[in-house]
Amino acid sequence: MPIKRHFQRFHRDERGAVAIVVALFMTVAIGFLALGVDLGALYFEQKTLQTRADMAAVSAVLNLDDSPAQNAQDTVEGNALAIADLETLSYGRYLYDAAVSPEARFTVGDLTDTATNAAEVVLTDDAPLYFSSLFLGTNSTPLSASATAARFDFASFSLGSRLLSLDEGLLNALLEEALGTSLSLTALDYEALANTNIDLLTFSDALANRIDLTAANYEDILTSDIDLLDVAGALLDTGLVSGSTDVLTAILNGAVSSTLNAAQLIAIDGDNVALQLEDVLGEVSVSALDILMTSVEILNQDHYIEASLDLDIPGVLDTDLGLIVGARKAGSGWITLGDRGATVHTAQVRLKLLLDLSPSLLDGIGEGVSVLSLRLPLYAEIASATATLADLNCDAGDADDVVARFDTGFAPMTGTTGNHVLELFLGEFDAPTFEDTTTPLDADLLEPAKFLDLELSLLLITIDLFSLNIKSHVATGISAQPETEFRVSQIGETQTYGVEGLLSSTVASLLDPDNLEITVSNDSPSLLGGLLAPVLALVNLILTTLPNMLLGALLIPVDAVLDALLNMLGIGVGEADLTLDGVSCGKVMLVR
């Protein structure tokens, strides 16, 4: 057979080609298999190392106050690694902020710093190579894993807005202003709400149902616009209010819808809190009446509210109240949830009181002289207060251990006009001046006000002597307590910081003869000049002795009226009511 034909037949013969293809494929397949085995092993080793790094970081954070480095090392050794594999262990402050990249949220600090709340761990290890070692010339490859764990310590606290007593006249007036309708509820109607404590998680869940945000997170719920109807309905929906529900029913039947933002009621200070709201909210319980009336207070800010009160104080016949509550500081709710540095702020309050006093308080003003009427127009401006959570001691265990410390030495509690503790005025302000809470009340704009009508009985003759005007002003400037501490046994209690007895001393200064300006009213009879000399002498005696008489006669009833009224409103003059509602410590999370 010619050789050429032999080669042609060999070229056409395909027997054995599959074996060649399979051999080539198996070589590649085995290579990929070897690579897959090594990659799978490396992935497993990396995940295992990451888990160990997570555990070491958590162990360090859980023991920040007690040998964190030793606990991290023990965790590393307990997971079959050497201490030398713990390449880095650093401490610092972690602040969750959605606007900041995750890498920038951890700031390395010192373990002794009270703000330190996180630990960062870097572990290294050598992972064995199997088939890849034939190609790479090494039996292992280095791996590294890092983890950051943070411990979040939270406190919930509130400032002011505590109803110390129930007066249906005042409570109804506050609700009427918010609802735009008249109410005739009794103190017993409000008592059921005052006796009901509701945790904020239960309230938030009920509120979410009311505003159709059941699928939202709690941060969304507590930053939503809500109605007073939603607040009342949520309190009712919890099913916890036993006894009378007439207050809530009256609100739900109201035709007016008033809107506030839930953050004005429950403020979340910092994104750290938002990470664990579900855990934190369930640990804070407050009065249902406090929730409701604080919502009303927020809605009524900068509104002028009028009420007539029966305070049952000797010498006081009637008390007409005008009330304005200023706006809260932005970002500050009634209850604030936050860690160190969280701040809560209360707004200023203005009161206008017209006191009808018993004329008998000035008996003996002069022989034959009778007091026909005694009216006292009184204005009060009470400044704001601020408190900042300075420190949390999560190691506090005994009842007497200090668990929280607040910085309460802030500028709103110091200063003079415009930034004062308390300012009292006797006289009259024009309505626009009093109702404009954006500017302080100016004593230069205070006008004398008629307060006293006198008559003289002489033999069988009765003479309307004259009416007197009064004007006075006093400001109390400094009331500061740099620090307020809460012990474990005081969680849930209210502490008052400021100056005791400031109200009575200020009222005494207001009525001091050196501050009083008493003048004859412009509309008094002009026939004074025609009176007999003895009568004129009596008139002059009255004008001379009256200032001292007023101090002795009016100090007790005026002080009692202000004290009773401010107790109803939960306002302390020169003071602030700070409540530590709850403490949540040791919430640990892997954050990176």
In helices, the fraction of residues equals: 25-40%
Oligomer: single chain
Number of β-strand runs = 24
Q: Which consecutive residue ranges, at least 5 long each, have pLDDT under 50?
A: 415-419
User: Overall 3D geometry?
Assistant: elongated
Over all CA atoms, what is the radius of gyration?
38 Å
How would you characterize this protein structure?
The chain is an alpha+beta fold and 592 residues long. It folds into 2 domains: 18-138, no CATH class; 155-590, no CATH class. It is 34% helix and 30% strand. The protein is built from 17 helices and 24 strands. Strands 1, 2, 3, 4, 8, 12, 22 and 24 form an 8-stranded mixed sheet that branches. Strands 10, 11, 14, 15, 18, 19, 20 and 23 form an 8-stranded antiparallel sheet that branches. A 4-stranded antiparallel sheet has the order 13-16-17-21, with no helix packed on it. The longest helix has 46 residues, at 17-62. The termini are far apart.
Q: Which keywords apply here?
A:
alpha+beta; 2 domains; 8-stranded antiparallel β-sheet; 17 helices; 30% strand; elongated
Helix/strand layout:
Layout: H1 3-12, H2 17-62, H3 68-78, E1 86-94, E2 106-108, E3 118-128, H4 133-136, E4 140-159, H5 168-179, H6 187-194, E5 197-199, H7 200-210, H8 218-221, E6 225-227, H9 228-237, H10 246-252, E7 259-261, H11 262-265, E8 266-269, H12 271-275, H13 277-281, E9 285-287, H14 288-299, E10 305-309, E11 316-325, E12 335-338, E13 343-346, E14 349-357, E15 369-382, E16 385-392, E17 402-407, E18 422-426, H15 431-435, E19 449-458, E20 461-476, E21 483-487, E22 494-498, H16 502-510, E23 517-520, H17 533-569, E24 575-590
Parallel strand pairs: 8-12
Antiparallel strand pairs: 1-2, 1-3, 3-4, 4-12, 4-24, 5-9, 6-7, 10-11, 11-14, 13-16, 14-15, 15-18, 15-19, 16-17, 17-21, 18-20, 19-20, 20-23, 22-24
